[in-house]
Amino acid sequence: MFRKIGVIAKTEDERVRKTLAALTAHLHQRGTPFVLDSACAQILPQAELPIADRDALGAECDLVVVVGGDGTLLGAARSLVGQDVRLLGINLGRLGFLTDISRHEMTDQLDGVLAGQFQEEERFLLRAALMRNGQEMMYDDAFNDVVVHKWRVARLITLDTYVDGTFVNTQRSDGLIVSTPTGSTAYALSGGGPILHPALKAIVLVPICPHTLSNRPIVVDANSRVEIVVTKGQDTSAQLTCDGQTELELADGDRVLVTRRERGIRLIHPAGHDYFATLRTKLHWGKEL
Fold it and tell me: Is the dihedral of CA 50, 72, 39, 138 positive or negative?
C-alpha cells in the first residue's frame, strides 16, 4: 500500500524514546521500508537507523508517521506541505485532535493502516504575508491559525480588518485569530470561536478579548482574502504568529494578508474514525459534573 514510511518525532519529550523504539522495531519486523527524520534520529543514536533530512523524507516517502502531540504534527505538516505525502499521528500529547492513535494501540492500528484500512481527508492551510510599505517582508504557512496579537505590555492594540477588499471593522482588542477548520478546536475555541467541521471550506475570524463585547467571531469562505492592518499612530507592541511556531514583530501600518494555500495536507485516520466521537472524548461532552 505504501512504498516507504517516514518517521518524525518530538525531540524534547523523554516518553518519545520508548514509543519510537517500539515503532521502528515493529516496522523492521514487518519488513516495511522506513526512514527517520534526521532530527528525531538523535533520540536513538545507537540504533543505526536509516535517516534523511525533512525535504528528502518528504520526497522519498508516501506516508509519514508523526510521534508526539498536535504541535509536532503541525510542524511536520508545515514542512511537508506541497509534497505528495500522507500524515498519520501517534498521540503523546494532551488533547490529540490530529494525532488520534494512542501509543498503546499503535502497532495494531498501524498494521490496519498499512493493510489499507484507513480513512483519508484533505485539509487546507493558510498563507500569511507581511506587507510593509508596499513590500512583502516575509510569508509563512499555518495549519491551525494566523494570529495578530499584542505582546510585552498589557495594552489593547487597534486593528482594521478587510475581507476581499471590503472593510469589516476596526477593533481594539488583544488581537485577532484567523483560523482554519483544523484550528477551530485550538486557540480559536478558547477565544469563544465556533467549532468548524474539518470538511468545511471556511475560515473563522475570532477577536481576542475585544473591548467592544458585541464584537463576535465571523465565518467567511475559505477562498476569502483577509487583510489585517495594524493602525498607525499608536505605540504598537504587536506580533504575527503562525501556528504558535513562528513569531515576527509588527510595526505601525503593517498589513497582514491571509489567504488559503493552494496545496493542502492529506491526513490518515484509522478505520472507523469518528470526528464527533473525538469531540465528545476530548471536550468531555455529556459527562456529569
Answer: positive
